[in-house]
Specification:
It contains 5 helices and 5 strands, in the order βααβαβαββα. The chain is an alpha/beta fold. It has a 5-stranded parallel β-sheet with strand order 2-1-3-4-5, with helices on both faces. The longest helix has 14 residues. The protein is globular. 34% of the residues are buried. The structure holds 1,3,4-trihydroxy-5-OXO-cyclohexanecarboxylic acid (DQA). 1,3,4-trihydroxy-5-OXO-cyclohexanecarboxylic acid binds next to loops.
Length: 143
């Protein structure tokens, strides 16, 4: 059986739609989830969001054990979390990093990235469509 694709979202992404829409767009996380499920067809999508770092680490470990690929928008933990970096380094499935905005073009404190060095690829700056690009890549890799 084809393994599920995990899509994990970090802090404050539950606020998408109303949170700084000029930067992050007007799509909600539910909109993004629905679009991915539709696009994935028969492949199941394990779509989750948490505001807590430890939960994200637990889910990365779960994805590595049970999933076919991991799409991760770690939010601000991207720029702070060595625990997440270590969990991703231990991950045995492909990891695709996604950001709605392009952190490389933003504030200095977003220039540190603990996710990208442990990811297979990164997609940033395409808004919600970035998740769809990541899913297409994940389906290619796992199909
Ligand atoms: C983000 C970018 C991060 O810098 C920020 O902390 C977020 C969202 C994005 O999707 O553009 O929470 O991951």
């Amino acid at each position: 059986m084809v393994k599920p694709i995990y899509v994990l979202n970090g802090p404050n992404l539950n606020l998408l739609g109303t949170r700084e829409p000029d930067i992050y767009g007007r799509d909600t996380l539910d909109d993004i989830q629905a679009a991915l499920i539709k696009r994935a067809g028969d492949v199941s999508i394990e779509f989750r969001q948490t505001n807590s770092e430890g939960q994200l680490v637990d889910w990365v470990q779960e994805a590595s054990a049970k999933g076919g690929a991991l799409i991760l928008n770690a939010g601000a933990y991207t720029h702070t979390s060595i625990a997440l970096h270590d969990a991703l380094r231990a991950c045995v499935i492909p990891v695709i990093e996604v950001h709605l905005s392009n952190p490389a073009a933003r504030e200095a404190f977003r220039q540190t990235n603990y996710v990208a060095p442990a990811a297979k690829a990164s997609i940033a700056g395409f808004g919600a469509r970035g998740y769809q690009f990541a899913l297409d890549a994940a389906l290619d890799m796992t199909g």
